[in-house]
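Thread: quick sanity check before group meeting

JM: Hey all, I'm pulling together slides for Thursday and realized we never actually wrote out the predicted structure for the chain we discussed last week. Dropping the sequence here so it's in one place. If anyone has concerns about the input, flag it before I start.
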Amino acid sequence: MHSEKGRALDLSRPARPWVALIFSLAALFAWFWPRSREFLLYDRGLIGSGQWWRLWSGHLAHHSASHLGWNLAVFFPAAVWLERIRPAVARFFFAASPLFISASLWYLDPHLQFYAGLSGVTMGGLTLLTLAQLRRTSSEPRWIWLVVLVLLAAKIAAEFMRPQTALFAGLPEGIRNVPLAHLAGAAFGVVVVGATQRRKPS
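JM (edit): ok, ran it. Output follows.
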């Protein structure tokens, strides 16, 4: 027999972060699949010829093991945290942000021929998590999240000033950093927060 109190307790439990886990495992699978770049990479020429799935799948491909490792090291904990506190919002963001970022690259950087990596989605997820934490009552002091928000903005600004520098990622020779992807991800995080501002947390 289940009481109403018991049901309330069940509903109050954090959601299981299965989308964050699927995303991370998919990126790992793509890295170990020898032909992943051939079929998944954001390739402007092939997208233009009709391979539209690359607008989404390109975010699962990576240029190097270091590129993948650093992205997952930030993406996974942030995505798990976000999905546990705002599951519906987080799942919508993870599904839609790759397309928003790729569309931004397509229209705003027509000279970019190739793109890969979770960094844009990660930046957006961190922005969304930070804004969500600022809006909710949590045990952390509010200033911590304000500092995080400032650091995210500073990172994007620094990348635009020095786009050839990719901290930690270990990109191969000839592959440049794409700060526009990070800005687009963060912008989409802000849009999602604004769109859900009047709704109660999921």
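AS: nice. The chain has ten helices and two strands. The chain has a mean pLDDT of 87.
JM: adding both to the slides.
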